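Retro notes
What went well: the complex prediction finally ran end to end.
Inputs used:
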Amino acid sequence: MTTIEKEWAERVRAAAAARTPLCLRGGGSKGFYGGPLAGEPFELCANRGVVAHEPTELVVTVRGGTPLAELEELLAEKGQYLAFEPPHFGPGATVGGCVASGLSGPRRANAGALRDFMLGIKLLDGRGEVLRFGGQVMKNVAGYDLSRLVAGSLGTLGILLEVSLKVLPRPVAEATLRFELDEASALRRVNELGGQPLPVSATLWQDGVLHLRLSGAEAAVQAAGARLGGEALAPAAAQALWTAVREQTLPGFAVEEGGVLWRLSLPSTAPALGLPGRQLVEWGGAQRWLAGAVEAQAVRARATELGGHAVAFRGGDRAAGVFQPLAAPLAVVHRRLKQAFDPAGIFNPGRLYPEF
Amino acid sequence: MMLENEALAFGETEGDFSAVDKARVVEALGKVLPPGTLMYDAEDLRPYECDGLAAYRALPLVVALPTTEEQVVAVLRICHELGVPVVARGAGTGLSGGALPHTRGVLLSLARFNRILKLDPLARTAVAQPGVRNLAISEAAAPYGLYYAPDPSSQIACSIGGNVSENAGGVHCLKYGLTVHNLLRVRGVTIEGEIVEIGSGALDSPGYDLLALVTGSEGMLVVLTEVTVKLVPKPQLAQCVLAAFDDVVRAGEAVAKIIAAGIIPAGLEMMDQPATAAVEEFVRAGYPLDAKAILLCESDGTPEEVAEEIARVRAVLEESGATEIRVSRDEAERLRFWAGRKAAFPAAGRISPDYYCMDGTIPRKRLGEMLTAIQDMEGKYGLRCMNVFHAGDGNLHPLILFDANQPDELERAEEFGAEILELSVALGGTITGEHGVGLEKINQMCAQFTTAEVRQFFRVKAAFDPPGLLNPGKAIPTLNRCAEYGRMRVSKGHVPYPDIPRF
Ligand SMILES: Cc1cc2nc3c(=O)[nH]c(=O)nc-3n(C[C@H](O)[C@H](O)[C@H](O)COP(=O)(O)OP(=O)(O)OC[C@H]3O[C@@H](n4cnc5c(N)ncnc54)[C@H](O)[C@@H]3O)c2cc1C
Ligand SMILES: Cc1cc2nc3c(=O)[nH]c(=O)nc-3n(C[C@H](O)[C@H](O)[C@H](O)COP(=O)(O)OP(=O)(O)OC[C@H]3O[C@@H](n4cnc5c(N)ncnc54)[C@H](O)[C@@H]3O)c2cc1C
């Protein structure tokens, strides 16, 4: 164990004994996301640095407090990247926070989500024990897949000391095409394209315009571009667009005072929402953003009806619950899992669900 | 804290099921299962005595072959009430003894859950019952230009439920992912008889990622009754490069160089000379028999993309010292290249009365070291070994050849295998890449994990299965077992499992 790990293990054990809630804090960039923050601040940035990067193994292992930007820079130098395009939502975003919040960017529907790139973790649990699950290899089925379980758990299962992620070579070529299409036609189009062997790497529909990004080998991007038509964006404009989508700086994501930005995760073929508010559709139809003052009840009911779920992503009454409530048997499993990792209930209480 | 103590209790020692009363179990199950779906005579149980790992055999108390989810619920409720172990079984092709029956338990076969319930070409999803064969899904999707990507070599036989439970991979998973990457939803039944829906038609779900947790859980958490998978478009074209090398280590280095060049081939496999010789006799794939190792590297995509990638792969292979490079000229030749690789296991079965398949995964750059070590072990244990690898992701399948009828050959094969697995861990890898721990690698789990980690696994199991009735004794070793085995991970001078009694 490193000095930091020993010190933190002590602090966790003391907090567990005293039942003192801890508010785990990486870069402080995603404090808006999830349930309200509560507990004694526990700063995680000091535990930083790259443990190992073997470009030929397609794996990187970094400490939880490593700035995400630093990791991305390191990978870029070797022509690699995090294919799930994680949002930063602020300059200080850390890798631990990125994994804990489990968020993926525009490429998700095509390249996979953050959880798909998780290979292993070193975790400090609520008993102050340092545990390793998974590893640094691509295929590993020894023991339950606890590294993926921890991805997206919002710090409620433990402190991520280290994470190992699969990285990929950066695509050689990229192009973005623009089409004028209404919502229903755009939804149909992106789903049809999904069934064809084309190098689509992101989609965005907003205000009657569909943007498609293509990524891959030079020849493949060119051939697909020629086949699909549309109006090509200049490379700089395309780059700016997808960064603005990933970081939600596009005006469509803005919420007014008292409004809520809803994230609906739905089957890609789900029809138009038919709810009032501004909309952005990503992930080939599988992720829909809705900004406005819509009743939480109505949004959740509609998401359920369409076979998915809704998250109050920004704004709103966070204490009332941000994530869609769980079915009873799954809620029981969740409570037991939380107990298994954090028996004293000290890590980020209420951040995922008000009950734990 | 009740829950925690219970969990620990079944993580320390093996469960004791000696009190289970067969007559009572038969009577209770007979009330909920229609005639012909419950078997308890020894001759009817025999076909279920082992899975693909035939060295381990056991007869269950009874075999249940339910046809509906209600029957599964009823069976599990009864087993829960009577404290009877339950082992779920798909097609029984598993290679780690995962579906090996429990001698005091019910073997729950999902073989009759064999229908594809829905196929949605626009959404690119298929909903299948767990007993549906892997290949049947791709066949059903083919008319729409779609397929299910994970393609284990056993795909004509293995079930999708078994694939989910083992997180099965295939020769194309380097580019297209394992089962976990191609799964959207499962429906299952807990030991308490509760129906759970994990995942949905959307790409993610609220709460913890239980879908990932259930994938690869070897029938330890829930019994699956439905699976929704993603379908992907068939690439326009696929072409395969066959490269020969006069040295296995050099072939291993070529694999690392392809990846280093930023290429993710659709498949990247390696076979050593004993393996090519064995399959050549069997399927006549046309492999160069004088080569010490061959690589198969597949490229797929649009014709332009494939041409570009093949040119890059060829350049890397030439630079890596390949003695011969062939590119498949048509689909028939491509399939012939693969036929040999896919026939490796049956070929081993033809040249040797028995074989034992290992499944360690190591960092690619350690391939050469591992191969050299395996050669030394062949001498040490006096047994031959042929090597086939999912080289692209460092997943090794050494096939140890032996004859169980010869005194102590099985024991030597097992020791040989154990040494390979422990070396996999020492080289920074894992004891199993895709076949699962089952019963076979349970001792080696002690080498890979610490006491605290093993305890955590048992707590996670207890979150789904508090009484520990689903597939007991598999996948995660009890701490007593590790103490007995005595080869656990020692970190920095700490005595492993100090709090467990030794015998
Ligand atoms: C009283 C109080 C006041 C605060 N006021 C502000 C404020 O005014 N402005 C502000 O921006 N923030 C504030 N915070 C910070 C807040 O703690 C963080 O925003 C929040 O904890 C999320 O951390 P993050 O965004 O840095 O983590 P990110 O790096 O963005 O991570 C997001 C999630 O991951 C978890 N996490 C991060 N690193 C790890 C890790 N290594 N292991 C496990 N989980 C991890 C976090 O707990 C969080 O749930 C305040 C906190 C407290 C307690
Ligand atoms: C010739 C050959 C080649 C192979 N090649 C590969 C390969 O390339 N890649 C690979 O990954 N594997 C391979 N395997 C191993 C095996 O085919 C896979 O592990 C497969 O996923 C097992 O599926 P099955 O239906 O046979 O499961 P079974 O063997 O019946 O069961 C496997 C495990 O899953 C559990 N299980 C099964 N069904 C359910 C259910 N409905 N609910 C809950 N638990 C369940 C069982 O309890 C057991 O623990 C190969 C095997 C053979 C014999």
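What we learned: Chain A touches chain B through 89 residues (CB under 8 Å).
What to try next: split runs per interface for comparison.
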